[in-house]
Amino acid sequence: MDRHKEKQAEKKIKTASSSKGSRKKAGLIVGGGGFIGGSLMHYFKTMQGDAFEVLAPNSKRLSLREPGDIKSYLRIYRPDFIINCAISPLDSGPQLSYQINYLGSINLAKASMALGIPYIHFSSAALLPMGDNVTENDHLPLSTDLHFYPRSKLMAEMTLNHLHENHGLDCTIIRLGVVYGKHDHKIQGFQRLLFSIASQSMMFLLTRPGIRHSYTNTDRIPFFVHHVLRHRSEFSGQTYHFVDQEPVELGGLILAIKEHLQVNTPKQLYVPYPFARLGRSSLKVILRLLRPLGFDGRLPQELMFLDKFYQSQILSVDKLKRSTFGITDGGSCVFTELHDIINYYISRWQLLNLIPLVKKDLLQTSPGTNAFQNNPEDLLSGLHDGKHEYLSDYDSLNR
């Protein structure tokens, strides 16, 4: 949300909070600039604009690392619900993981308790064990062996459950699998996999045959959140896995993307886990040795979960099936959405020159682009002389 629109929304929410008879519900989405938060913002603004007015302040206006920010913001804009989609980067150190994923989440929950409003908290499958039919009651043991990211997410869930059971917090926890969809400009998660294949940097398959994971369609999340907000008595104090009904085989997905892009790699050769782990360790050493020479590079954040590429993790959806929301994917999965997702990201990455040219038909060139690339002097001369009408006419502003 741009700053002007955010100010308008804030003004409306402030007015609504002081007007008892206001028809619209006011909501606060923390992390609205991210993949999940952006999808929620789009839904509530476009599809539910007559019923909801939502805010998504950036971290400069409301930082989860500053409890004072939360207090001062909520004193002015008193929402009817809070949704927390904010997370620290996967490879964050202990302080950032603890401050954002744990302290920030719990401070928002305590603020929700003080205001007497629902709190929707997004969590992750990273805190769950591997295996088939993993239920909402399952989680990894809390220990120093856990990476900081899943450790902080697990602690947040434990404290939210404690606050619900002992202090009456009206909270719903939504755990997601591997999230896929469009309109995320960060290269992470599913997009990292797609980028590795499109950039032809993945030479072989970093997994084993038959390894499957649960995936979440970002376009379906807002409908579930809306339903959860409307049925608080059913969903309050509950944790739900929100994933597609059918899991996805990682090797099959990689090969499907390769076929769609018509690239030569990765080869259909599965890399054994010990070799994959050795390769990751070797890359870490190489990058460390290059730093004194002025080269700065980092491994993809997802490689911290390399072991999960070699183990299945299938989240149970039985509890979701039994709920009043049920299963509404209609058979859709990452494979049915693959064509649109690939076209969206490949087009964007090609225009940004992040990957080699993969699909020419996805290059959308504006008038003059070819001349800009091949004859910049002639293009500039023609623009100055009025020969090319590539620039818009603004004379009407004087009328």
Percentage of residues assigned to helices: 40-55%
Structural class: alpha/beta
- Overall CATH class: Alpha Beta
Order of helices and strands: HEHEHEHEEHEEHEEHHEEHHEHHHH
CATH architecture: 3-Layer(aba) Sandwich
Q: Looking at the structure, what is the overall shape?
A: globular
For the record, the count of structural domains works out to 1
Regions with little confidence, pLDDT below 50 for 5+ residues: none
CATH superfamily: NAD(P)-binding Rossmann-like Domain
- The average pLDDT score comes to 87
How many DSSP helices? 14
What is the beta-strand fraction? 5-15%
Largest sheet: 6 strands, parallel
The CATH topology assignment is Rossmann fold
Q: Output the radius of gyration.
A: 24 Å
How many beta-strand segments?
12
Molecular structure report:
The protein is of the alpha/beta class. Helix 4 packs parallel to helix 5, helix 6 crosses helix 9 and helix 9 packs across helix 12. It has a single domain, classed as 3-Layer(aba) Sandwich (Rossmann fold), CATH 3.40.50. The two termini are about 30 Å apart. The strands form 4 sheets. Strands 2-1-3-4-6-10 form a 6-stranded parallel sheet, with helices on both faces. It has a two-stranded parallel ribbon with strand order 5-12. The mean pLDDT is about 85.
